[in-house]
Specification:
homodimer; Farnesyl Diphosphate Synthase; two-stranded antiparallel sheet; 71% helix; disordered N terminus; transferase activity (chains A, B); Polyprenyl synthetase family protein (chains A, B)
Chain lengths: 341, 341
């Protein structure tokens, strides 16, 4: 299918296509599971949940769960749909996080649509998020793997910790690169890691393979978030589903800023303090911010860091035998990193 | 210990004392488990969690879990602390709900203290709630009972559904008694039911006993909430830890209102529409509301409804052999209902 794609000289052309094709059957079942499990007699629940879920997104996380299970030769015994249910659980956990994040960030937009909290209120975002988390755990229980439950429930706490860390570090320009990495390991990469790790777990593969899949997911997740951070200062709003400069307007200290602040002169530091710490933002400040980031080359550097984590993710897959699934997972890394170009 | 307490002619004198004494050892371990499981390197998490958890409350839900396990002869094999961990999980689920409720209700006070969301912001309340939910599931996984996990994860979704139903019914004076009961079954009674049901489950007792414990908890929970509703128009703020009239000021349609609205004349209906639906509340409106409720006798009637559910709760325990634990559980019902006097 894709023998040439594993060649590192020819990255990111096929993008996610091979991976998507390999798990297409499973994703159909994931999508119908998502639809049926957002059902509720309480009409507002499917309304709010589907507003967000139906608005798309790549469903990268459930795809990773299915692919890692497939990579490890998971066989669905007696139609239990273990991989499908865990994949849907992972997507529900992700959606719950997005709903709660919107309340935390006071966001107006999400995935190019009005945020649920604007349309239905903070209340609905909080409660429908809670409902989806509950449904996620119910599906995991149905799968019946205590190890998978352990991994995903631990992930739920680590994600919340990462978000709280981000809150505590908010507007703090002294945030170090290490501290920032700890935040994104929690808030983003942990769910990628868990999504991948449960694949070998339900396929009952060795701890070494579980750890390898986890490492792939963790490093891919870090790369993914760093690229998102760079895109927030350079992507186009149609590509991203949100406007360029959101992080800037919200005073979020992301890696491009962490790196730039340390190299900034006194005048530039004054600019960062006024805009990001004090939140006094004028019309042309985003343009100024971009020019400072470009002057210090920190967007390129953020992408370079992402590439490093991407390489680590790819290396983690070395212990698995070559084949179309492994190739497609390697491609997925290239796809994530290449988004920044 | 308490042979006379089972005598229905002598209710509520001992209150919760017997129940508290019977589970005292377990509750010590529950409390230290709560303390250790709110620990996090992220300092804000224990701060926020303990602000609420340390402010007390009766810990009725974990007490019920321990008591129902004890009633069913649960033996802690190899120090796994199954009952203790499930009890702590139940309290974490409850605390998470309170944190998220404060955001939903925009509350300023909780248990007589400033609400966490006022002190740390909505963000912290949402995220620390999520952290506690994650920790609750981790503890359940450690206990290793898939049935208990199933019951408590289902409860998490039902609670969220109940809260969303309440949201959808908010300010709607046409809410029927049935619709209101559906709301409180979800938002309050379901966790009482689950807290009780997991006792016989981990003691590996029959389905009939699981169902009986669940019915006890469900009906006790309904009674508990109805009494809370009545207290909100009649308790004193020191007893309740929140001010009389909170529900009124928030436009909550509780049973005393549901019953009164149907009996109100046109002028009174106009009053309810202005205050509860439109939220235009003046200084002496709470006094007027109280006098309308008293005129229609709906506070007493709400307490009578609570007493009915309390009797159903007590009858559910008939299949268990008489003894100090069953006696104390019967007392607990009286205690809950008697709070309204």
């Amino acid at each position: 299918m894709a023998a040439t794609i594993e060649n590192p000289q020819k990255p990111d052309e096929a993008g996610l296509n091979d991976l998507v094709a390999l798990v297409a059957d499973g994703m159909k079942r994931v999508n119908s599971t998502i639809l049926s499990r957002t059902g509720s007699d309480v009409a507002m629940i499917p309304e709010v949940a589907n507003h967000l879920i139906a608005s798309g997104g790549k469903r990268l996380r459930p795809i990773l769960t299915l692919a890692c299970a497939q990579l490890c030769g998971y066989v669905d015994e007696a139609g239990k749909d273990g991989d499908v249910k865990l994949a849907a659980s992972v997507e529900f956990m992700h959606t719950a996080t997005l709903l709660h994040d919107d309340v935390v960030d006071e966001s107006d937009m999400r995935r190019g649509r009005v945020a649920a909290r604007i349309k239905w209120g903070n209340e609905a975002s909080v409660l429908v998020g809670d409902f989806l988390l509950g449904q996620a755990f119910r599906m995991m229980v149905e799968v019946g793997s205590l190890k998978a439950l352990d991994i995903l429930s631990a992930a739920a706490t680590v994600i919340a910790e990462g978000e709280v860390m981000q809150l505590a570090a908010a507007k703090n320009l002294e945030t170090s690169e290490d501290a920032y990495l700890a935040v994104i390991r929690g808030k983003t990469a942990e769910l990628f890691a868990a999504a991948c790790e449960v694949g070998p777990v339900i396929a009952q593969r060795s701890e070494a393979e579980q750890a390898a899949a986890r490492s792939y997911g963790m490093n891919l997740g870090i790369a993914f978030q760093l690229i998102d951070d760079a895109l927030d200062y350079g992507g186009t709003s149609t590509e991203l589903g949100k406007n360029v400069g959101d992080d800037f307007r919200e005073g979020k200290i992301t890696l491009p800023i962490v790196l730039a602040y340390r190299r900034s002169d006194e005048e530039e530091r004054g600019f960062w303090r006024r805009t990001l710490t004090r939140g006094e933002i004028r019309d042309d400040d985003l343009a100024t911010a971009l020019s400072i980031l470009r002057r210090h080359g920190t967007l390129e550097e953020t992408v370079a860091r992402a590439r490093h984590y991407g390489e680590t993710a790819k290396a983690a897959l070395d212990i698995f035998p070559a084949g179309p699934v492994r190739s497609a997972l390697l491609d997925a890394v290239e796809f994530c990193v290449a988004r920044a170009h």
